[in-house]
Design goal:
Blueprint lengths: L5 H8 L26 H8 L9 H16 L12 H8 L6 H22 L12 H11 L1 H4 L8 H5 L4 H5 L9 H13 L19 H4 L7 H15 L2 E4 L10 E4 L22 H4 L3
Length: 286
């Protein structure tokens, strides 16, 4: 059994697995931000200020709104969704939002929706799969890199050696003339063909690249780092529920996260996989 974990998210993006669960309904900021022209081109023109070199609060929130909708959660809409405003404002204010859990929960939701879309797909119609699929692509690449037979262009060699996270380096790799459908097919066959667990299936147990907190030893011998590192690994290894809800009008998407079923991906011994939730009462967290 293999799956994307919070350790993988941290290794690919440098995002911590700790922080508050984002709740779009608990917005109590004094900062307000709104926009009327939703098309991406018009949004950029309207929010760009040329009278000052300083970045205003409004400009920063506008940038975060655009970044979240276009590059992180990859909205299906061809316009900037207003629903991302609340998250953008809270990030601007420096609130300790756990983006890694929110992104992973959103990916679980979008992959679930993608399965339905693929089953219902008819030849000649369009198939659009929104969401942070880029994270899934990076995970497939780091896990099945040899089978996908990708290569690094020589002009990227220095930048690749200086990569701060593994995800940045993976984005530099090239696939030749193969399209996404061919690459996903190869990765799918590789995933189904995993009969023996090999070190390549747990690429982040060594934690060579990434932020300082990611590379620190666990268990740590440092009293100074002990609380932070233990909290991070507790987040990695604790079964929980991941919310995918980003907007107030969005559905209450909740997805199970059970790292106990893929312990080998953390460099640990794998017991017989089973659900930790035996009855409904186990699902009711305080």
């Amino acid at each position: 059994m293999l799956t994307l974990t919070l350790l993988d998210v941290a290794g690919l993006t440098g995002l911590k697995p700790t922080g508050q669960t984002f709740d779009p309904d608990s917005h109590d900021s004094e900062i307000s931000f709104d926009f009327t022209r939703l098309a991406y081109g018009n949004f950029i023109k309207d929010q760009r200020v040329t009278t000052s070199v300083e970045v205003s609060d409004k400009e920063h929130i506008a940038f975060l709104t655009y970044w979240l909708s276009m590059y992180i959660f990859c909205s299906r809409s061809i316009q900037v969704p207003k629903g991302f405003k609340t998250l953008a404002i809270q990030l601007h204010e420096g609130r300790d939002i756990c983006l890694s859990k929110l992104i992973l929960g959103s990916l679980y939701e979008n992959l679930n929706q993608a399965m339905t879309s693929i089953k219902e797909y008819q030849s000649g119609s369009s198939l659009i799969i929104p969401g942070p699929i880029w994270l899934f692509q990076l995970w497939l690449l780091v896990t099945f890199r040899t089978k996908l037979a990708v290569f690094l262009p020589t002009n990227f060699t220095m930048a690749y050696e200086d990569r701060s996270t593994e995800g940045i380096g993976l984005a530099m790799l090239r696939y030749g003339n193969r399209n996404s459908q061919e690459l996903f097919s190869i990765a799918h066959e590789a995933l189904l063909g995993c009969e023996v667990f090999t070190p390549s299936l747990a690429p982040f147990t060594t934690r060579v690249r990434g932020p300082a907190w990611f590379r620190k030893e666990f268990p740590t011998s440092s009293i100074e780092d002990e609380a932070e590192i233990n909290a991070i690994w507790k987040a990695y290894l604790t079964p929980t529920f991941l919310s995918s809800r980003i907007t107030t009008s969005g559905p209450y998407g909740v997805y199970g996260y059970q790292p106990n079923q893929v312990a080998r991906q953390f460099g640990l011994v794998q017991p017989k996989p089973s659900s930790l939730y035996k009855c409904l009462d186990d699902l009711r967290q305080p």
